[in-house]
Sequence to fold (470 residues):
Amino acid sequence: MRIRLFVHSIALVFFGILLGLGGTGLAAVLLGSDVFPDVRNGIYYDEAIGELSAAGIINGYDNGNFGPDDFVTRGQVAVLLQRLRDDLTGQRVAQESTTPSSSLAASVVSSSTEDTGESTTQTEQEEPTSAGSMRFTIDHYSVNENAGMATISVVRTGGKSGAVTVDYTVAEGTAKAGEDYEVVSGTLRFADNETSAILVVRILDDDTVEGDETINIALSEPTGGALLTTPSSAILTIKDNEQSVSNEGELIYFGALGYDVAENEGSIAITVERGSDSGTASVSFATSDGTASTSHYSATNGTISFAAGESSKTFTVEVSDDESIDGNKTVNLTLSNPVGASLGTKSALLTILDDEMKSFGTGSIKFTRSNYESLESDEGAIIEVSRVGGTKGTVTVGYSTDGGTAIAGYDYDVTKGTLTFRPGESKKYFIVPIIEDDLNDSGERVNLKLENPSGGAVLMSPSTATLEIQ
Fold:
């Protein structure tokens, strides 16, 4: 499909509206809700969708739905208007698109015969929604028995508008509640524009040689207009430390929870770290599709080997540039099969930024949210920090607890340190240790702050946050 034809179809929208004005007084107005089952009757765009559908300007998807909440970003609108201007003034030379219609073309022009682009990559059981869909990053996690806790990542894809929640439960597989892990259930909260959250499962160590055991984790009851997509259930394997390697106290883990790369940058180096540099160790790595497919990146897998004295290594993910305005795409990153060490953070998310909307510069640093919650029974609260607006170069930021109604040394441990974001790294975290007592003192708060950014980065709001201990 030629870009010129795409832009002309946008021009036809405006022309069709003018034509439609002459006919609205001659016949009853057709509503979008009369045509498409997913358009709510009476919503503000109901009449507009019906009018343009009747004129044959906008059609639905192959499944009969319209997808009214398929979002268009500000960057996509800017490029669309720029191309329309260039086409009308004769500045743009028509060129052949190398990919099927993008999500933007599908949501504005909605070609029902050529809708094979990203707007249909959602799972079959879900409808498009700007609130997004929630899922685990992978369907199988593992943790060493003596690690104390397992951190499980949940992501929100396909939209990020509004605050949403999702419930989670942890149930017995072959592991026994109260003996191998602590029973936990709860609710994860995503603020407006927030796309990831972490749940914590406390692991109980014993001296029994019992082999690896499993726990079943499930998501349910999404709210705020969000949906569930696969995988909405996952298995956590507890690796028996009595039969593991002699230096298993050493951990191998991703250097960040999230990475960003613009699609025209070609590649990104993903950092894998280990907790010490003594002895040798190795770990397997792999990529898998999130919302991205292998047309957006080159799938890769392999083994990273640490020699004595080495504590940090990288592997490279190559990304592909195209001329489609198809939004950001995600790739799942996983670590597995550690030798000479145990796994720490074994999953991370790589976001491929559409180059029409890519981030420039070193970026700004902020808390992912302004309010965090933790149970007093948790060993620690995980506090996420995000780097937005650019991931070029290495930057650092200081973090610390800063008083509050909770009492340091009784309710929590004073925490202070520095987070280092390498090139491409967009999300990190630190942990505030929580102290359990027998007092009924829930609702106490710990103040958190970021300070002293370096490397050209700046702080943005929120640079302060609160942690509420329940």
